[in-house]
């Protein structure tokens, strides 16, 4: 069983920064591909960023150049550094995990709220 616990959300003004963390309780964290998703009220969930087992990141166009995904395998922690935040980044942010050999993200955290005011 994989458990994911996010932290680091909060309220900031536009242009500010936040760093989200996701602590994974899993035997071999390095075997998991990780991702951040977000969902704003009344909108569908969208992918924000992905990182594979050898630290190759992929970003959604809306956050590319502003957000950085990273992982610390020794600490079993996933991070999302968010800079130059915009009001449209306001959402609940979720950490997700999948074994890299499988197709779907089937482990999810409870989410952490990010609110950006203009």
Q: Spans of 5+ residues with little confidence (pLDDT < 50)? A: none
Largest sheet: 7 strands, mixed
Shape: globular
Strand content: over 45%
Quickly describe the structure.
The chain contains no helices and eleven strands. It has 118 residues and is mostly beta strands. Strands 2, 4, 5, 6, 9, 10 and 11 form a seven-stranded mixed β-sheet that branches. A four-stranded antiparallel β-sheet has the order 1-3-8-7, with no helix packed on it.
Q: What order do the helices and strands come in, and which of them pair?
A:
Layout: E1 3-7, E2 10-13, E3 18-25, E4 32-39, E5 46-51, E6 57-59, E7 67-72, E8 77-82, E9 91-99, E10 107-108, E11 112-117
Parallel strand pairs: 2-11
Antiparallel strand pairs: 1-3, 3-8, 4-5, 4-9, 5-6, 7-8, 9-10, 9-11
């Amino acid at each position: 069983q994989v458990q994911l616990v996010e932290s680091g959300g909060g309220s900031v003004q536009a242009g500010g920064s936040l760093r989200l963390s996701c602590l994974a309780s899993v035997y071999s964290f390095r075997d998991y591909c990780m991702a951040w998703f977000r969902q704003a009220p009344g909108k569908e969930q969208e992918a924000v960023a992905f990182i594979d087992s050898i630290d190759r990141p992929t970003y959604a166009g809306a956050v590319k150049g502003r957000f950085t995904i990273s992982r610390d395998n020794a600490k079993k922690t996933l991070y999302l550094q968010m800079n130059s935040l915009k009001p449209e980044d306001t959402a609940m942010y979720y950490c997700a995990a999948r074994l890299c050999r499988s197709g779907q993200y089937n482990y999810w955290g409870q989410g952490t709220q990010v609110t950006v005011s203009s």
